[in-house]
């Protein structure tokens, strides 16, 4: 497992914290595409609120008029009206739930795709600094945690707020004095709920960070590589204990989040539940003194409306707490959406027509970090003619792989430029550049899918015949054909059902399907045994024929036939020439060659 110190951590400056109004505007903007549907929900909510306050007035008429006067016909109509109001209200509730849930899920979809698409545009440097589990947690846990907020909370807020307004208006119409008594404590309740919301927001931020840490731990330790490392190093038990500690901390945070302000919110509910008793008590005392405040029907109707007020009020306060909690999740999502795209497609990208494949490095400088004291690459001047081959050799850390990453624009140069067919790669569209340059790296990545699906990742519309042709060129067809399910065989997590050489040849077959004019080979055979290396090298020779090829070489025996060999040292070109020229010069290349095969004369290697 990688140490926490190398994962990406957002800046924690106070001035970076979004101001609530700005964050609210941004959240509301998520719902803007669905204004029409939300307007319909608002109308349904308003209609539902109006219908819900009709029943108490019908009840007052039942108690004060229909029953005392024995008007059975009126009683039947009033009772039927109360039932009809309940039915209509239920229909309105179902419709508003359907529409609001649909809108909420679309907003969730928009958020997920926005984050995923934005991360696809991030540079390779971002992913080298960020744990994969952290990224997965933002998409799964953070956005998933907002589901109830964006699907039902908005509707609940509008519905409850409308119900509260309608209930207050109806209560004032019945008796303004009782209404004032009922609303005296409401400001205190609002203040309490805001305090609870802020408290839960802080705990939620801690909880999501812990979830991200757990996701990273699971992703790293339960992958095939993680299991192999843990067992071979005898660390399985310690990894389990570490996960147990993280899980225990998460459980404590969940309890804290659940219990934060619970007693205070319950106190509000107790007070509100006791208010009808207070109203009945006050009305009873007044009636006993010979001066009744209101009629029995009005009193019962008022208490019914009061309950209709308190239920949405409690729900409104609880929803407010939930919304404040969700602000922490929105902040984490917006944090990713606000990450600057270091490598962006130009506003007016150049599309290459027929690609010949000439590559040039013109005064190239590169630093991974602006504060880096010494550049990783400095003053690189190279020309790789179309169809020719260049081998890049040097000590570990000399900048070989970095040089190769600049051609497909996995990183941008910090000085000079890299061109393909005379066009700066920073001016090319991403599509055009990906068609021009193919990369086969030392660490082959295969998806947990079938062999055919892995190959078609390079060319989704490739026919079966094209798959077979590419596999034959990469000398892997016979191996695939010998499998029980052939090209439908699952390769397993990261391709662990195949050997290192087989995975490399599958990667080569995938690149052959892509058919790029420029080919980058980043130490593609360095981890293979001699026999497997020869098989893979034959496949590479087939793939490289007629293409511009830049090979990052670990074993110098594989680059003798290169048209040019460049020797890098501490990011600078120290030698350039053919194998024979560099051997005759007896310089850095010759020294590297002697170190590799000290017992063989240089001219016979």
Automatic annotation (TrEMBL):
It comes from the Bacteria. It is found in: Cell membrane. Residues 41-325 form the ABC transmembrane type-1 domain. Residues 359-595 form the ABC transporter domain. It is a multi-pass membrane protein. InterPro entries: AAA+_ATPase, ABC1_TM_dom, ABC1_TM_sf, ABC_transporter-like_ATP-bd, ABC_transporter-like_CS, P-loop_NTPase, Type_1_exporter. Its main location: membrane. The keyword Secreted does not apply. Pfam families: ABC_membrane, ABC_tran. CDD domains: ABC_6TM_exporter_like. Keywords: ATP-binding, Membrane, Nucleotide-binding, Transmembrane, Transmembrane helix. GO terms for molecular function: ATP binding. SMART domains: AAA. This is ABC transporter ATP-binding protein. It comes from Kitasatospora aburaviensis.
